[in-house]
Amino acid sequence: MEAMNEAARACVGCGGLVPAVVGPTHPYMQASAGCWQLYGEVGARWHGQPGAGLARWHHVDAYAVQHPGGAEHDRRQRQSVAVHLVALCLLLEGAHSPEQASARRGRTSQVVLGRLNLADWPYLAPPRDRGAVTVVDVHAASSQTQQEAPVYIKAWLESAWAAWKDHHATVRTWAATLQKVQP
């Protein structure tokens, strides 16, 4: 990734202050290149590490729901928001382990859409404020100390979930439907 300058700018998705760089972004999540870079670095730190728990399995959920742009026009993005919100619900409200909530994520669309006779995921209007804790905070914490990062990751997950409070009832219905089929 090539730096444009040393300045930071607000990510178009989460609003976090990220490096102002030119580079790749996600194909349908709306994020600035600097934010996508930080997310990749956070994921790389935790990938495959035993005992990484929340960081290993759920950083993707927080990132996805904080970068929901385009969902009103893109089926993949509506699905992404729905599936990742269900995973956060299972993890934070359903007392599922990180591994259990992650394992259910892969079958969410098939099970929930089929059980509720939905052709596709509905559009959930994103919250104006995507959460106070972003990948920027987790990146900074995991750069400083390995012990602090899990605290920031849990705060990130909770912040991302809380931001979508207007849709919690809908997401809880989806999570309950998934749990009936996949206890």
Give the helix/strand layout:
Layout: E1 2-10, E2 17-22, H1 33-46, H2 54-65, H3 75-92, H4 98-105, H5 108-115, H6 135-144, H7 149-163, H8 168-181
Antiparallel strand pairs: 1-2
Helix pairs in contact: 1-2, 1-6, 2-3, 2-7, 3-4, 3-8, 5-8, 6-7
Give your account of this protein's structure.
With 183 residues, the protein is mostly helical. The chain has one domain. Helix content is 54%, strand content 8%. The chain has 8 helices and 2 strands; from the N terminus they run E-E-H-H-H-H-H-H-H-H. Strands 1-2 form a two-stranded antiparallel sheet.
In short:
The protein has 183 residues and is mainly alpha-helical. The protein has helices at 33-46, 54-65, 75-92, 98-105, 108-115, 135-144, 149-163, 168-181; strands spanning 2-10, 17-22. The protein has one domain.
Beta-strand proportion:
5-15%
- Please tally the helical runs, counting DSSP H or I stretches of 4 or more residues: 8
Shape: globular
The Cα radius of gyration reads 16 Å
The number of strands is 2
- Determine the structural class based on helices, strands and strand pairing: mainly alpha
Question: How far is it from the N-terminal to the C-terminal residue, by CA?
Answer: 43 Å
| Spatial strand order of the main sheet | 1-2
Largest sheet: 2 strands, antiparallel
**Mean of the pLDDT scores?**
87
Low-confidence stretches: 1-5
How would you describe the oligomerization state of the chains in this entry? Answer: single chain
Order of helices and strands: EEHHHHHHHH
Total domains, how many?
1
**Overall helicity:** 40-55%
